[in-house]
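TICKET: design request
STATUS: open
ATTACHED STRUCTURE:
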């Protein structure tokens, strides 16, 4: 890992990403989620299924992917857009090191601005609800167990989403537009209404992993834990390998600007 992670590139990436104006957008989805949770907690009765609906559907299909999109396309896409990537590639730093380093920084920032707020919102919600083992109705799951389960799922989503968005930022100069289209059409719309799409849905990987700790059908996880872990690992590895290959196609030539 030491050969793949470059501390100098990491520091430059972190400083540039959090200092840009778009960094102000990082906290916006998280603030909306937390405020929505506070409002619902104040207005709903103690036993209710809304935490699983809101924190599952909104958190995993909107909050995490949008935050990862902004961050994941910032750590590398901005350098490609303004041409400064040429200076980076002119240094003796391996392409794989550039991709992995920026992926790690993007993932860490997404955890701070999306996964941790998901944890906070789950704690505020007071817990989720699952069917009672005997009889009808729902029973409330403790806030701690509920929050930890969602946090683990959010961590998985943070990793996978950033691998995908870093790859997209290398593949196209319209990374934000392509990524937004992917989030809105694939993750938010198709994956929730077309069962076959769930197998290639990052949000359902996260929900599947989280649901492994809860067994909560209200989360509407379309995949099991094992499938979610295996597919998540495959998608992450494939996206990073593709990103490295695409970045390797960039050549530094001695032509005048």
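STATUS: resolved
RESOLUTION: sequence designed for all positions
ATTACHED SEQUENCE:
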């Amino acid at each position: 890992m030491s050969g793949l992670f470059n501390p100098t590139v990491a520091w430059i990436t972190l400083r540039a990403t959090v200092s840009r104006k778009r960094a102000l957008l990082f906290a916006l989805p998280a603030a909306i989620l937390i405020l929505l949770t506070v409002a619902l907690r104040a207005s709903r009765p103690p036993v209710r299924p809304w935490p699983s609906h809101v924190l599952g559907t909104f958190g995993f299909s909107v909050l995490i992917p949008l935050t990862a999109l902004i961050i994941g396309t910032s750590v590398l896409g901005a350098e490609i857009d303004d041409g400064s990537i040429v200076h980076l590639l002119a240094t003796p730093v391996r392409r794989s090191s550039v991709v992995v380093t920026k992926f790690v920084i993007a993932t860490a920032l997404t955890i701070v601005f999306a996964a941790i707020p998901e944890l906070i919102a789950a704690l505020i919600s007071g817990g989720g609800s699952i069917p009672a083992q005997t009889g009808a109705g729902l029973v409330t799951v403790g806030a701690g167990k509920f929050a930890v389960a969602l946090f683990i799922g959010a961590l998985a989503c943070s990793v996978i989403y950033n691998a995908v968005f870093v790859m997209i930022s290398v593949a196209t100069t319209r990374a934000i537009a392509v990524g937004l289209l992917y989030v809105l059409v694939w993750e938010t719309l198709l994956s929730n209404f077309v069962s076959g799409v769930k197998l290639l849905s990052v949000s359902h990987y996260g929900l599947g992993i989280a649901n492994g700790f809860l067994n909560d059908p209200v989360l509407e996880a379309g995949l099991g834990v094992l499938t979610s872990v295996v597919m998540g690992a495959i998608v992450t590895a494939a996206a990073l390998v593709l990103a490295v290959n695409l970045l390797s196609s960039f050549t530094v030539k001695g032509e005048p600007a």
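CLOSING REMARK: The radius of gyration is 19 Å. The CA atoms of residues 124 and 256 lie 57 Å apart.
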